[in-house]
Amino acid sequence: MSKTTNKFAPEVRARAVRMVADHERDYPSRWAAVVSIAEKIGCVPQTLHEWVKKAEVNSGKRAGVPTEVADKVKALEREVRELRQANEILHKASAYFAQAELDRPFRR
C-alpha cells in the first residue's frame, strides 16, 4: 500500500495527462506544458510529469513496467512471503512435535 494518500481522483489525473498530450505542441517544451497545466489543477509539476510518464509506460509509448504488471508482481511477492512464513511455522511445529514424540517414554 502506498505511504502517501492520493489527493487527486483518477479522473483528474487522466484529464491532466490528456491535457498535457493535447497541448504539448502549444508550448516550447513538454516541461513548460506540464508546469502550466499543473498550476491549473493545483499539483506540483513533478507529480504531473510522473503521471504523464506512467501513462506513457502503460500505453506502451515508453519503456518500463506497466502498472498492472507491477501490481501483480507486488501481490505475488507478498503471497510468496506469507507462504514462506507459514512454511517456516509448520516446519518448526513439525520439529517440536517430533521431538515431543521422541521424549515420550516407550510403552509396550
UniProtKB/TrEMBL annotation:
Superkingdom assignment: Bacteria
SUPFAM superfamilies assigned to the protein according to its UniProt record, in alphabetical order: Homeodomain-like
Record-linked InterPro entries: Homeodomain-like_sf, Transposase_8, WH-like_DNA-bd_sf
Native source organism of the sequence: Sphingobium baderi
One GO biological process term: DNA transposition
Signal peptide annotation: none
Coiled coil: none
Record-given protein name: Transposase
Entry's Gene Ontology molecular function annotations: DNA binding; transposase activity
